[in-house]
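hiii so um. not sure if this is the right channel but i have a protein structure encoded as tokens and i wanna go backwards to a sequence. like what aa goes where. can anyone help
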């Protein structure tokens, strides 16, 4: 909406002054995601005394910068956000906190150093090869899906072909030369870095979308699918053990990073991602029949995860975690299919046992190993309410109990907790 219309929504907030304060001199049309929010906010502007606003904003400033202030603030911030909310008994050593804040503030400068040490070109080439093989596996799967009709398959394949793949680190590094970093107060360096990011975003207004940008820094141990760019992104940080071993055999890497790659790919077609088309526009390309089939099958996975009870009386929220659970199951299934294809080309590897394990067994062991972790009960409780991912244990046991391939690989008897009854198995990808 134009500025005038936004102003009508909130008569008691002066947008002109606000935009001037943030150096946005001529704001164009504004995408107001939640008009109702602004209407409600306006009544709060009227009814809340100025002194309360000052206190509230002061509190936010302190809370947001507490980790960068003096020891008392740092400790109290840790006490509440980590100890009380997450059960962490001890603050991390300073060097770890410093690296984390550098990653947050100037992550691409840190990342440039990081990839120089940890991410050789061979690793990038092997990761790209894995991505391409997973892409083929998903295309095969879409082609043979029993529940998706032809027009939807056609559009899905078009979207898959159009995926942008980013691996390791950006082709073009961010230029931090305008950011002032000095030996003065740490908190001021942090505030300048955060302003630098805000200004960088404001500078994008009215310009073409930069499709080369990254939403995570290179050292990040994570990956993402971004529906608005139709891209999958794997920072160098996750392209290392236990996810990815440049020297290991295929089974280990398909079970690890392969399952992550498959996971991210299916996000392009899940309850969120499927609403976007191949160039990232919000456009429904599903036929009503295929959409209904997808929803029906998704309900089965919602039911499955609702059963899980990580702490007495506290269940996984199957609805909240739906998209991630579908991606976990789809990811491991696609990676398994891609491994089978790789083994078809290499019959000697199919027969080869390593440490007494078949390739299929190594695949599933590797999949379990990537989620090997420990969490305190407080952390589990917090995340059950806020995290769209299931607790690590169920990210392994959930998908594998749905897979006949897993049952077969380890000869698990019917009726075991790791084998779901055939009529309760989820079957989407
Ligand atoms: Zn995900």
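sure thing!! here u go:
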């Amino acid at each position: 909406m134009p500025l005038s219309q936004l102003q009508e929504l909130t008569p008691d907030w002066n947008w002109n002054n606000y935009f001037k304060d943030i150096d946005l001199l001529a704001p164009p049309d504004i995408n107001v995601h939640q008009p109702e929010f602004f209407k409600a906010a306006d009544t709060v502007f009227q009814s809340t005394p100025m002194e309360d606003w000052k206190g509230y904003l002061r509190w936010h400033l302190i809370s947001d910068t507490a980790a960068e202030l003096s020891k008392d603030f740092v400790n109290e911030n840790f006490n509440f956000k980590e100890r009380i909310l997450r059960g962490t008994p001890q603050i991390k050593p300073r060097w770890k906190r410093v690296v984390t804040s550098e990653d947050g503030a100037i992550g691409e400068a840190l990342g440039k150093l990081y990839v120089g040490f940890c991410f050789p070109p061979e690793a990038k080439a092997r990761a790209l090869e894995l991505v391409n093989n997973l892409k083929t596996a998903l295309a095969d799967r879409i082609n043979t899906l029993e529940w998706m009709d032809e027009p939807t398959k056609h559009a899905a394949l078009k979207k898959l072909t159009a995926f942008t793949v980013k691996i390791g680190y950006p082709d073009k590094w961010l230029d931090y030369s305008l950011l002032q970093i000095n030996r003065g107060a740490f908190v001021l360096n942090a505030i300048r870095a955060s302003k630098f990011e805000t200004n960088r975003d404001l500078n994008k207004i009215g310009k073409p979308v930069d499709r080369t940008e990254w939403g995570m820094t290179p050292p990040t141990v994570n990956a993402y699918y971004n529906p608005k760019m139709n891209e999958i992104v794997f920072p160098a940080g996750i392209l290392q053990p236990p996810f990815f071993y440049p020297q290991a055999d295929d089974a280990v890497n398909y079970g690890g990073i392969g399952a992550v790659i498959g996971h991210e790919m299916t996000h392009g077609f899940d309850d969120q991602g499927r609403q976007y088309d191949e160039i990232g526009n919000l456009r429904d390309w599903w036929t009503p029949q295929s959409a209904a089939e997808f929803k029906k099958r998704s309900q089965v996975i919602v039911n499955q995860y609702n059963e899980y009870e990580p702490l007495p009386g506290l269940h996984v929220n199957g609805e909240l975690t739906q998209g991630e659970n579908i991606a976990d199951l789809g990811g491991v299934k696609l990676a398994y299919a891609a491994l089978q294809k790789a083994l078809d080309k290499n019959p000697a590897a199919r027969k080869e046992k390593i440490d007494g394990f078949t390739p299929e067994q190594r695949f599933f062991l590797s999949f379990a190993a990537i989620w090997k972790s420990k969490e305190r009960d407080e952390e589990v409780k917090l995340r059950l309410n806020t995290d769209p991912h299931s607790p690590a244990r169920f990210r392994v046991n959930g998908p594998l109990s749905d897979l006949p391939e897993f049952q077969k690989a380890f000869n698990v008897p019917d009726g075991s907790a790791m084998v779901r009854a055939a009529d309760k198995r989820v079957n989407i990808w």
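oh and The first strand starts at residue 164 and ends at 168.
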